[in-house]
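Quick start: read one record
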Amino acid sequence: MSPSLTHTLITAALLAVGALPALAQSASISVPVPTPAGTGPAPSVSAFDRFANQAKKPVDWFSWGADFRIRNEYGDNFITLSDADPLHEQDVLRMRSRIWGSIVPAKDLSLNVRLSNEAREWFRPSFAGQYRGEEGMEWRYGIVDNLNVKWANAFGLPMTITGGRQDIMLGDTWNWWLMTDGTPGDGSWTFFFDAVRVTYDAADIKTKLDVIYLYQNALPDEWIPTIDRSGNFNPPYTATEQTEQGVVVYLSNKSIENMQIDPYFIYKRDNRETGLSNGDDAEIYTVGAKITGTPADHWQYSIEGAYQFGEKTDPTLKYSPVTLDSSGSSYTPERDIDAFGANARLTYLCKDTLNNQLHVVYEYLSGDDPDTGDDEMFDILWGRWPRMSELYLYSYIYETGGKVAQWNNLHRIGCGWTMVPMKGMHLGFYYNALFAPQEVPTRALRPALFSRDGDFRGHYLQAVLKHQFNKHIAGHVWGECIWEGDYYAQRELMTFLRAELLFTF
């Protein structure tokens, strides 16, 4: 399919989005809700909402819900970094459907389950390994992406225990840094952890403690069978590149007025999986802390930093002092980790009728120095999600051993402006100047794509328009582009455009 037809599809989707509010308004019938005298009129509830609320919770001990997300994503050069590659242009329609339920057999106890599937229609030959070079419908597979038991007030204490497959995000909302996505191999389709999480809330001292143990399998069907085809491909579909274990201790304290301090410790063990060529063997220890606060009216800040040590053996390593075995042959060594990262944000809230907000950001993720025997690459752990960019996470595939969103060797300074032009709508514009602390990407799968003699990654622009039409329908248009700098050999323009609709029941 040509780019012009792609843009036609996107335009059609946007026209449909624009028509939805009117359709929803004409289809809904307002039902007045009685309120006590003196409290003023209550908001009306549509007949559909009334039906949905009753249908989703037919009895006190059971509730359920569902959603359907459709995305048209178009991008150029954002994976290949060059238009010389026949797969430089990508155009795909992603259709994710989910259904979930919760059973409450006793007070403070719940059983939670969610099923998820994402089919993809490729309008251009696909870059994905399991469907590489193909066009048409890629059905993929269905997966149980949540299955857990949650016990609140455990043992009569202010403690919650959640065991099983669950979603875990630690840190600032939508800026989760190291703990967000346990399944980066499938993109934003799922992001679960197989884990036991214990949360203790000591409200009297304004302190919350999370202790988490997790075990992530590389293949999506190793513990719970998937529906249909996850294991029938070579290479297989993967949730991540290696089997991963972890222990997280995360403390949050709000005893200082207008400030929250979050120190943490994270241990991550990687074990390479047979048949997967780019998995690591590693033991990574991360010690870090985050401080957030509101020092004055209109101002907010967040500062986070972490240091990493341990050992790692990475088979995709290309540039490092050569280590020889007893026979004189070179091999990939186990190297000591010595890495650090920082992430900061300062926001000014205008507190006006349009909710204008301005912010500046700074982030540093150390890169691997090819001239030392240590590994200085900061490992983003379970933070491999599109936190700063939907486009740029794909550019790391050929730079970092075939791993998507393996953020590292990054130095960025940026700013942004967001506003609410009307009820339910969010508009944002963002700019980042991107640099590389190390000129040589030591794990590059295609070294010719990088100049190895420059440290400017490029100028990055992003614009996002979101709208929540009602509680059941939301949509957005998302655009990004990067003008490549001298860190790259080709100096191409990377582009990304997405239109999305989300229906929730």
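The radius of gyration is 24 Å.
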